[in-house]
Amino acid sequence: MHGKKSPSLISPTGAIKLMTHAMMGAALGLVFGLALVLFNPTVANLLNHGGHSAATVFIITLVTTFAIGATLTGLVFILAEDKEF
C-alpha cells in the first residue's frame, strides 16, 4: 500500500525550491546582461545615451524575464519529479 503524500509544491520545501529557481534565474539574467553590455558595444552605447532610466529598465527586464523562466522551468521539474514516484 502506498501512503498518500502531499504535493511538494504545497509545502515549505516546495516554496523554497521555487524561490531557489527564481534566484538562479535572476542571477543568470544579471550575468547575461553584463555579458551583453561587455561584448556588444552597440548595447553599451545605447545604455550610455539612454541614461539611468534606460539602464534600470534594461536590467529589470532581463532579471524579471530570466527569473520567471527559471521559476516555470523549476515548476515543471518539481511536478515531473512528483510523477516519478
What's a concise summary of this model?
The chain is built from two helices and no strands.
Give the SSE string.
Answer: HH
Total count of strands: 0
Major sheet details: none
Radius of gyration: 18 Å
Q: What is the structural class?
A: mainly alpha
Helix segment count?
2
How far apart the termini lie comes to 13 Å
Strand content: under 5%
Tell me the helix content.
over 70%
What does this molecule look like?
It is a single chain. This protein is an all-alpha fold and 85 residues long. It has helices spanning 12-39, 41-84. The radius of gyration is 18 Å and the shape is elongated.
Strand and helix layout:
Layout lengths: L11 H28 L1 H44 L1
What keyword list fits this structure?
85 residues; mainly alpha; 0% strand
